[in-house]
Structures are given as C-alpha cells and as structure tokens.
Design brief:
It contains 8 helices and 34 strands. The chain is mainly beta. The strands form 9 sheets. A 5-stranded mixed sheet has the order 2-8-7-4-5.
Length: 610
Amino acid sequence: LANVDLQRLGYLRAFVQGEDFTEPYQVALARMAETYKTLPISSTFLARLAEAKRLTEPVAALALAREAEARFPKSRGAARARALRAEIERPELVFSAADIVVPGQPWRLDLTARNVAELHAWAYRITLREWEKAGSGNYDERNRPVAQRFARALKATPAATWAVPVPAQPADYKEQKFAAAGPPLPAGYYLVLLSNQAQLATGAAAPAGATTAYAVVGASELSAVSRPKPGEKATSLLVLHRQSGAALAGVGAQAAYSHYDQTARKPLVRQGAPLATSATGEVGLPAPFETSSASEQFDAVRIWRGTDTLLLKNLAGNDYQLVDSQPQRRTFLFTDRAIYRPGQTVYFKGILAQSQAARATLLTGQLVRVRLLDVNGQTVQTLTFTTSSYGSFNGSLVLPAGLLNGEMSLQTDNGSLSFAVEDYKRPTFLVTLDSVPGRPQLGQPLALAGRARAYAGQATDGATVKYRITRRELWPMFSEYSRYGQSIYPPGGGRGSQEIAHGTTTTDAEGRFKLAFTPPAGPSQPGRRGWEPGYLFEITADVTDAAGETRTGTRNVVIGRNPLNLQLTGPERIDQQHLPTLTLLGTNATGELLPATGTLRLLARRYRPS
C-alpha cells in the first residue's frame, strides 16, 4: 500500500500543472512519511519531500535528507537523500570578466558562489592563440581538462596571485552574487583561476570539497570599431585607445580571410598584407576575394603597437550590401480584399518598377501579363495590360465556381500576391468585451461587461452567453536584449492554462451581459531574483443568437502582485551632452491609463569596447 501511495503521488507530481499542487504535494509526503515511519519506504517519502523543498528551502531540505539517512541508512530512500545532501552541501563557483581589460588598471570580476567561505586567485600568462581558442564560444575538440589544455602555462610562475574577499553570508546553502577587483596586469593574455583552496590543484589532484573555475582575460590599450564601406565589401577600421578613446596613428593591422576549400574539404585562412593606421587612426581593409568557385569572408583582424597585440573578430564588414550590377524588375500587386467567395469579383492593381544601384524608377508602356493560379498552382485565366505613364495598371476578374477552395494567387513575371477563397458566411453580429477600469487585484472580485450587437446597429437581445475563464502563469523574462524589453510579462510566455470559472448567462434588451469572477492568487513563491509571477486571465464569451449563429469575444487581463504597470521609453543611444526626454507610462493590468508618482533613477553601466 505504501508503494502504491508513492507511485500515486509521483504520477500527480508529473502531470498536474500549476503552483496550487506544490503545497498539497508536500503535505501528503509528510503525512505518508509519518504513517509509514516503521517501514524503510518512509525514507523515500522524506527524500522526495526534501527534493521538493530543495530550491525554496534548502536548509529544511538538508534537515529532511539527514533524517531520511538516519531513519533507515541502507534503504533506497537513504541513498537518494544522501545524494541530495551532497548536492546541497557541494561548493560551487562561477565567475566572468571582460574579454579585454585596460593594462595597469584594476579590473572587475563578477562572481556567483555557493557554500564558499574563502577564494584565492592566480593569473598565468598564455599566448594569443591559447586565448583565442579558450574564448567565448570556442571549445576544446578533445575535451581536455584545464590542467592539460594549459599545462605549459601552469608550469610557469603566475604573473599575479591574490585573495578574493567573500562577503559574509549565513549558512543558507543559497547562491550569492558579488563583485571583486583583479590586480593591474601588464599588456598580454592570461589564464585566471579561482579556487576555494589556498593551494591550486585541479583534476584528480584536487582535495575533497575543492571547487575551481577559470576564464581567460586579455589586457590591451588597443580597441577598434569597424564599419563597411557603402557599396563595397571593404571595411574601414578605426583604432582607438581603450581608456582615453583617442585615435591611434601608426598601429599595425593585418586582416585574415577564410574560405572553404572544396578539394581539401576544410576551411583555409589567407593572411592579408600588413597595413598601418593613418594620422586619424583609420585603416582600410581590402575586400575579400570572390570567385565562381569560392567566396572569402573576413575571419579576423590583428592589430598591434609594440608588444601590445589585439585580435578582432566579427567585423561589421561581413554585413556589406552589394550594389546591383544588373537592373531588377519587380511588380507590386494589390487587391481590394484578402478573402473572397467563389464567383466574387477580384479588383486588383499593380505597379511595375525597376531598381539599380539603390535607385528605383517606374516603367511605363510595358506589357504585363497577369495570371490567376488556383490552389494547385494551375493557370486558370490570363489577362494582359500595358502600364500607364505612372507605371501602373489595374483590372478585375471573376473567380470561377467549382474549383477547390483555399489559397489562390495573382502572378506576373516579377511578382505575385496570394489571397484566400472560401465559402464563408458573413457574420451578422459581433461580440465585444469591455476593458477593466481601475486597478484589478488578485483575490478581489472583478466584474467585466460585454455586448452583442448586430452590424446593422440593433442589439442582439435574448442571446445565450457561455463564458469560460482560464489562468496562465507568467514569469518575468525582462532582458536588455529582449524584444519585449519594456514588458515584464511578455506575450506568449508562461506555463499551461488552468480553468478557474465557467458559466452561462443571457444578453439583456440592449445586448449587454456581465461576467464576474475572483482572480485567485497563488502562494507567494519569489524566484531567484525576487521576482514573482504574474497571471494572464483569458475571458472567452461565446454568444448564440435565436438563429443559431455563434460569435466569440475574448479579453486578456494580466494581473500581478502589483496592480500598476510602468513602461519607460526612450532612445537606446543618447548624447550625454543633450539628454533626450524619457516617457514614463502608467497603466493598469488591461492597459488603461493610470496616474502614478514615484522616483526615477538613472544608473550608469560600464561600457566594454571590443
């Protein structure tokens, strides 16, 4: 019976969605562990309960794991609890730094650590080639550990050693994020290792409880920006001092070009001629070669001044735009509608233009043949036109009956346009759901009004309204690189939906109806950054009139713990000498404008040039 209960809870855990199941699941595990405490399987219930609390309550999870081990040490549950305890107590360390830092200046390390009380750091000199291979996005083909990959560098004396201060934190077994400073480094490239042990040891030589992380860092006074030359494959490179931003003259530059050799079946790299920057810090990089059998691309550019060398990747010259060597014709087609019924007339218009060297001209007096294609791509009808003095033509045709419905198209030699053909019934009325005024809140009753009205203007009274309300959980996905950078809860995100209410009502003499429900608030479970989920409530109302026609209206309402949404808009790049106007918009969950007062802070972030 205990094993059946365990399997039943496991099945529910795997298939029941939503945070509402978390608390009952944990209560059931605790109850079963107490009910079967005289049996070895009780350790499995305790281990499962510890796993459920692992992320939110690691201290409680560790206590449960230890209890499961002590109850029946040789049981399967004890083994599972032992593995969980080792995972909770295991030290973890991750850090990152800028790819290139300023020589002779302290630099920043961003660290994430867990179960770490002290940290020690070492910096070893490596070659430019080793730095390039170990950089972002590059992996060792043989999957060697760091001690083998950098064996030569680790045999030498470290260029710098230092202790990294770790902020004091209670033993809560949670991650802590903090920043630390690295010591000034001469120009060059370095392997930086961090460990919680005073003596550096990696691989099998590392003692129990040791954790080590590494990254590669370069130090150079050089930086550069690039841009493609308009209409060419060539690239213009501007070399600047990394700290002052001053243009640097006389800096050497050499481009490398890559292409795939079909005969050798491998990529080959060709080194360009050495060049030097002008008095303004600029240098023009020759365009890659292009033949019928091979096409080169910029692979990298190496710039140097004395012993200071910098390797540049991902140049903007790869995004060049070719100038049209031959004139290109294009026909722009337009129709009066996007969907038709069989037998209806399609009214269309077209414009014929020709582009060359980024300039477009209208073509007049040209013969144009327009073909109607059915859903199988077969020509049904062909019409011939001559363009006017404005390069345009227009006409009409009747869609034949008896053909397959679907997507048909108008086609010319230089353009096409698709449209739908369906035996659809024109709707006689529409259903709308009003917006929600004020500030809707979780756990508070919410009333929503709707209306069914004929397109002729009269009310659709006495109609049956069947409504359904579902809820979907949305977690914050804010990111500076996200296309939804202004929205905490982007559309389309979140978990599966859950029905929270449904019912039936009727429209009154004015075609109006009202829906009321209480948006339930789930338990407060902040995420790793302290953010809490929001909820998308989708209200769907199906209205059926006396003639049996059914139309649907929907309304989405997003409600979070805070009923006020703020959106800050402004340009991505600004001139610090001429600060632009920033726009702050306050809305409620449904997008209705709301007045709000508060404090706006402008924070500076350090710019890291490539």
